[in-house]
């Protein structure tokens, strides 16, 4: 039976949405509070000076990971962006991006419940589409929550200068695309690999290696040529400070579509159970 002959399983979509909701709420709440906490530090000039002095004694790659040259006294926007590039925030995005598709696809296969799902007038393609929608929509909404955290903080604290929220909106939209790309890579792994642990391991290894190369390439000139091949390169706040990076947005959309479609094609041809 093809997907066109079977009604779309909105019941499965709702069931899976309720299942991942606790994870989404936890990750979203921490990211939201993280933005407020960063803004609470940035609006206090004494705290900023202490923080910048602390950064000076840390390795160069740590400062690069938190914002690089934008971390300067008086550059309030650059300091607020710490909340968008903080390793904890990136880890939470990775947790959601990897956890959702691997739980809903390979996880259901391992538990034997995927066969039960597919016995209820649901095609393999429809099950994959449900997992894709929840993964990508979840990633984008988490980025919206991050932006709302900044909006809330700008109303709670006085920074002594106007805060250009349009900058953070551009970064949030672009961040949603980067997060979506990470989610689509996890979808590809979940659709192609047998075993939840294997899918999680491969995806996490890829994202960690990608992040590591991006960080090292920024302060080691010999590896600078590798920056464009990393996923995190397309989340550059320097380019976003000027205008919408249409070229980067196009690349990220291509990655999302290519990985999601490739994962769906492989998943459709898999024999279950594995």
In percent terms, what proportion of residues is strand? under 5%
Cα-atom radius of gyration: 20 Å
Assign the structural class, choosing from mainly alpha, mainly beta, alpha/beta, alpha+beta, or little secondary structure: mainly alpha
Count the DSSP helices. 12
Mean pLDDT: 83
**What proportion of the residues is helical, as a percent range?**
over 70%
User: Segments where pLDDT lies below 50 for 5+ residues?
Assistant: none
Beta-strand segment tally: 0
Task: List strands and helices in order, with pairings.
Layout: H1 10-42, H2 45-56, H3 60-66, H4 76-80, H5 82-85, H6 87-111, H7 113-118, H8 124-156, H9 165-192, H10 196-219, H11 237-240, H12 246-269
Helix pairs in contact: 1-6, 1-8, 3-10, 6-8, 6-9, 6-10, 8-9, 8-12, 9-10, 9-12
Gist?
The chain has one domain. 75% of the residues lie in helices and 0% in strands. The chain has helices at 10-42, 45-56, 60-66, 76-80, 82-85, 87-111, 113-118, 124-156, 165-192, 196-219, 237-240, 246-269.
General description of the model:
The chain is mostly helical and 274 residues long. It is built from 12 helices and no strands. The radius of gyration is 20 Å and the shape is globular. The mean pLDDT is 83.
Which labels suit this protein?
single chain, about 270 residues, mainly alpha, about 75% helix, about 0% strand, globular
